[in-house]
Amino acid sequence: ARNAFKGPTSKPDDKATDRGFAGSNTTERQRVMDALVGAFPDEREPGRGINYLDIHDNWTLADQFATRDWNGLAGVDEAEYRIAAGLLFTSLGPVVIHGGSEVLRSKGSAQIEYDTRYETGNPIYFKGRGDTYNVRKPNLFLWDTIGRTDGPDDIAAMEAWWKGLIALRNSPMGTPLRIADTPPADYVRWFAPDDAPGLLGYQIDERLMVAMNTSDTPASLIVDAAPGNWRLVADGTRAGTTPLDGPRLTGGTQTLVLPPLTLMIWTRSE
To answer: Which of 22, 148, 158, 234 is the most buried (most CB within 10 A)?
Structure first.
């Protein structure tokens, strides 16, 4: 799930291939679909796997989605970063989040490559930016950046996006996501057009609708929604449990026009 959502933990080389489906690697779409429902062979049901994006070791999400030099301190591709978070929080079963990801925690002050240095004849191993257990500074949390909007990134808005997704998942609206056992075959309905591999939509238990566009141009996605009143609760930059202004869904087949690099979520009421 981690690799499909945001790319592998090994040293990234190419933005087009090493940042998962959220980073516009469209070859990962099927694996993302498997990850969202716990369909990998060694899982068999959502409760057997734990989905996550980054954790204490390996590359931080901010460095993997850095605008340049794989250094999140210099700036982050925020739209793709938000898509990755949206994928995680709309996956079935348990998820793990790493404190600091919501405020763009980076290990950018560390070297990129693996290195061995010697001090008084003894080796000191530096695993590089992928893991920094022997380097103090990259492991510090830059608490003074929280709430900032005047740097290379809008950290306050990113933190609000993560808080909103957490609130949505923990609310009654997010109940369809918090399952452990194998759901019925029709629990998730997919909308994945063959001619647009950067698009993906899914309806969960006829109560949640997620649609995303991972390409850098606007695109249209045809979905078939269950009857009812669908309220937009995540528009790509804001998320939560309060309805937002934006495209509304009604029952039946309809076309959603999705902005570039955007993940949107609707919830249904009777």
So the answer is: 22
Helix, strand, coil: what percent of the chain each, to 5? 25, 20, 50
Query: Which amino acid, one-letter code, is at 239?
Result: A
Distances (CA, A) of 187 to 22, 206, 226: 23, 8, 12
* Beta-carbon-side half-sphere exposure of residue 266 (alpha carbons within 13 Å): 25
Of 253, 247, 80, the closest CA to residue 153 belongs to: 80
pLDDT in tens, 162-176: 999 999 999 999 999
φ, ψ dihedrals at 123, nearest 5°: -75, 140
Q: At what angle do helices 78-89 and 29-37 cross, to 10 degrees?
A: 40
From the number of C-beta atoms within 10 Å of its C-beta (0-12, 13-18, 19+), residue 5 rates as: buried
CA 256 – CA 224 distance, rounded (Å): 10
pLDDT tens per residue across span 21-72: 999 999 999 999 999 999 988 887 888 888 999 998 889 999 999 999 999 9
> What single string gives the DSSP state of each residue in 105-160?
---TTS-SS-EEEEETTEEEEE--TT--TT-SGGGS--GGGTT--SSSS-HHHHHH
pTM listed for this prediction:
0.95
| C-beta separation of 28 from 76 below 8 A | no
Q: What is the DSSP letter of 203?
A: E
- 214-232 burial: b if 16+ Cβ within 10 Å, else e: bbeeebebebebeeeebbb
Taken in order 169, 170, 171, 176, the sign of the CA dihedral is: positive
Q: H-helix or E-strand containing 29?
A: helix 29-37
Backbone conformation region of residue 28, classed left if phi is above 0, alpha if psi is from -120 to 50, else beta: alpha
- Outline where DSSP puts E strands in 11-68: none
User: Residue 189: beta bridge partners?
Assistant: 203
